[in-house]
């Protein structure tokens, strides 16, 4: 038996219409008026019993009509009572699976002790000859004790089960109910070959705090088999006030400081005017601030620490103790930027006062963080220089390109397929026919001629559309910086997207205004090629073509474009407990073997680069993940690993909703049919009809007939009484 509930409980709101018959009866009740008569001898006598009987008859009619409104509401809300009835059930032993929630939210106050105590109490209530499995789960399930093991007696099995329950430890992972229930069902469905085993009673005992965030984000269609009974054991109290460090943001400032911004989240019932926040670096407390946190809100607190370009910064933010300790601290790590090589391919022009390459060099040298080492070569000498070094650059910028030699095209294509990044700027010397052949054609683009054959100062175009959601433009999203109306383009190369199928993926980032034919040419486009990418500017940062270099947006736009291509965000990835590491660190790109140290562990492990995807690293605890090359003496990369901040939200899901989403209800007939295919049970006998809303429909039809007959009878009686009085 799975309980009584409604599949559409919101339709019960129709019961509010029950007030309508009562109002109608009150409105239609005849008003009593006082009339003066000279003598009462000519008025008929009416007994009090007759008046009271009429009032009772009308009251019954009103109640009958109210029931006609209540019955449809109850029927359409689809009441049900879930029950699986297996015929000729054997007297075999039942199977049990104890699903134990070990997510860190179970560490609130005394929840963990309560859960273990209830698990042991449950174990003692199960007959000793019945099989029990133990599964611990957080982000993913782990079978601690199976139902069956070779060479293990029943007594030994029960001892192992009890030891497994006592050895459970609180993890730092989040909650995921779906994979845990799927694992439990797989265990229970093992060795289902004969009829007796098909009829064995199977029970899942779920011990958890039933957090709503543990439910699957999307509907999967999977539900627990109706042959399995779910026994929900709720742990703890939901209403517990606490605080948490929900997030940390790092920002490198211009004056060689690291700004650390922490988000303090309040789950307290009242305001906290003085919440202390501590900053730790290398396990040493170096600063403390007090912030005001309103109940149910979040507030930010910031610290600034000096940094050196060759030293890694690692630390944490921490607030005071409360009911849940694990979310009171959050780790962060900052790795110094690795200076990368930028190869600038540009040929100086003598017909310009301010050439595009000169403007680019000036802008790049103004980088306060000095991220790139810039090497400039003419386009015709680029291939020989590249091949001579036998080492690929981190980033390639092709400025004011006229043509790309065939040898350079093949080199660029292979470079991008292997993960290289290219910024291509087209100028007035670009040859569309040559560049389209074996270059733009391969990437789904078509280059036309210049927009204006003759340039005039009063003739220009502007940007009509910008993808502000893209990382290149994300820093311009606010109203203070998103105005590009002052940027004018006196000329540009017409770049269009083709419909031809290619391996490359083209993503428009900005468009020019429509021309006289209604077409919008691309003003900026991103092309994914293999593991690398290329961004195309169909214009040159030439003052004769655009006033962009004179605008304050030029340097930020150039830096954000290069930063996106360079993958600066990949230098400090964020990891959560429960994730698996499959990507090799960028800073160890020249190494084939590395040494890793997991959070809260002193042991060091040698990892092969080629084997990392086959054997990923599972992060089980919060702290610091450290990497270095096999020959290095110091750690080259340090990454912060934190718990899932959403796990600290202890909001519960109601048990009836939990069972409705993850346990079978309308799937009973399907499951019974599958059982019938085994020729072990009869589907018609295995299911007891669980929904009984149609009973209310039958009652409704009967009620209509009764109400109609009763109302007619009352009207006829009233008519006869009227004639008698006359």
Quick recap:
This protein is an alpha/beta fold and 726 residues long. The protein contains 15 helices and 31 strands.
Mean pLDDT: 81
The secondary-structure class comes to alpha/beta
State the name of the first-level CATH class of the largest domain: Alpha Beta
Strand tally is 31
- The helix content is 25-40%
Distance between the termini: 64 Å
For the sheet with most strands, the description reads: 8 strands, mixed
| Spatial order of strands in the largest sheet | 16-15-17-18-24-23-22-20
What's the domain count?
5
| Low-pLDDT ranges | 86-91, 666-671, 673-687
- Topology-level CATH name of the largest domain: Rossmann fold
The radius of gyration is 38 Å
Q: Report the portion of residues in β strands.
A: 25-35%
Number of helical segments? 15
What is the CATH homologous superfamily assignment of the largest domain?
A: Class I glutamine amidotransferase (GATase) domain
- CATH architectural label of the largest domain: 3-Layer(aba) Sandwich
């Amino acid at each position: 038996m799975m309980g009584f509930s409604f599949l559409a409980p919101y339709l019960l709101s129709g019961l509010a219409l029950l007030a309508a018959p009562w109002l109608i009866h009150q409105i239609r009740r005849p008003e009593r008026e006082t009339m003066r008569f000279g003598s009462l001898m000519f008025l008929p006598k009416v007994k009090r019993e007759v008046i009271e009987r009429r009032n009772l008859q009308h009251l019954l009619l009103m109640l009958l009509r109210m029931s006609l409104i209540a019955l449809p509401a109850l029927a359409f809300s689809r009441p049900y009572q879930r029950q699986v009835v297996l015929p000729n059930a054997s007297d075999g032993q039942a199977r049990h699976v104890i699903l134990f929630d070990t997510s860190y939210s179970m560490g609130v106050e005394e929840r963990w002790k309560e859960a273990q105590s209830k698990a042991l109490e449950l174990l003692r209530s199960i007959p000793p000859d019945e099989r029990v499995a133990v599964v611990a789960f957080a982000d993913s399930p782990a079978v601690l004790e199976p139902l069956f093991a070779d060479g293990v007696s029943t007594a030994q099995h029960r001892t192992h089960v009890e030891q497994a329950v006592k050895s459970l430890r609180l993890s730092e992972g989040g909650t995921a109910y779906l994979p845990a229930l799927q694992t439990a069902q797989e265990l229970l469905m093992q060795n289902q070959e004969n009829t007796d085993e098909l009829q064995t009673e199977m029970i899942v005992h779920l011990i958890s705090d039933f957090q709503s965030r543990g439910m699957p984000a999307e509907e999967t269609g999977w539900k627990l088999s109706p042959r399995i009974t779910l026994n929900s054991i709720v742990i703890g109290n939901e209403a517990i006030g606490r605080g948490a460090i929900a997030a940390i943001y790092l920002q490198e400032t211009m004056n060689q400081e690291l700004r650390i911004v922490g988000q303090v989240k309040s789950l307290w019932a009242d305001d906290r005017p003085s919440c202390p926040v501590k900053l730790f670096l290398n396990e040493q407390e170096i600063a403390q601030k007090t912030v005001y946190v309103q109940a149910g809100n979040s507030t930010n607190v910031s610290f600034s620490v000096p940094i050196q370009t060759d030293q890694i910064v690692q630390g944490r933010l921490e607030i005071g103790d409360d009911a849940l300790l694990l979310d009171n601290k959050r780790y962060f790590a900052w790795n110094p930027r690795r200076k990368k090589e930028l190869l600038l391919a540009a040929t100086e022009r003598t017909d310009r006062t301010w050439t595009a390459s000169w403007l680019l060099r000036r802008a790049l040298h103004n980088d306060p963080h000095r991220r790139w080492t810039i090497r400039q070569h003419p386009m015709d000498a680029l291939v020989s220089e590249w091949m001579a070094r036998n080492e690929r650059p981190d980033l390639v910028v092709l400025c004011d390109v006229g043509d790309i030699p065939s040898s350079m095209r093949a080199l660029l294509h292979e470079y991008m397929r292997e993960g290289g990044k290219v910024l291509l700027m087209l100028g007035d010397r670009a040859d569309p026919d040559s560049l389209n052949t074996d270059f733009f054609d391969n990437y789904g683009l078509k280059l036309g001629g210049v927009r204006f054959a003759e340039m005039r100062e009063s003739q220009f175009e502007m940007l009509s559309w910008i993808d502000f959601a893209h990382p290149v433009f994300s820093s311009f999203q606010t109203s203070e910086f998103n105005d590009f109306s002052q940027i004018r383009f006196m000329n540009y190369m017409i770049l269009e997207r083709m419909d031809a199928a290619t391996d490359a993926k083209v993503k428009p980032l900005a468009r020019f205004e429509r021309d006289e034919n209604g077409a919008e040419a691309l003003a900026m486009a991103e092309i994914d090629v293999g593991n690398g990418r290329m961004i195309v500017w169909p214009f040159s940062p030439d003052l004769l073509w655009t006033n962009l270099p004179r605008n304050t947006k030029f340097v930020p736009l150039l830096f954000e474009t290069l930063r996106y291509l360079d993958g600066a965000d990949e230098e400090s990835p964020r990891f959560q407990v429960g994730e698996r590491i499959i990507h090799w660190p960028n800073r160890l790109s020249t190494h084939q073997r590395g040494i890793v140290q997991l959070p809260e562990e002193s042991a060091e492990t040698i990892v092969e680069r080629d084997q990392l995807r086959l054997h990923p690293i599972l992060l089980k605890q919060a702290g610091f993940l450290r990497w270095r090359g096999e020959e290095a003496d110091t750690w080259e990369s340090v990454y912060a690993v934190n718990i899932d901040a959403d796990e600290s939200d202890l909001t519960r899901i109601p048990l009836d909703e939990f069972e409705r989403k993850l346990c079978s209800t309308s799937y009973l007939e399907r499951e019974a049919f599958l059982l019938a295919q085994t020729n072990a049970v009869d589907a018609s006998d295995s299911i007891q009809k669980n929904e009984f809303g149609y009973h209310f429909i039958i009652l409704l039809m009967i009620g209509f007939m009764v109400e109609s007959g009763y109302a007619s009878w009352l009207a006829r009686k009233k008519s006869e009484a009227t004639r008698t009085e006359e």
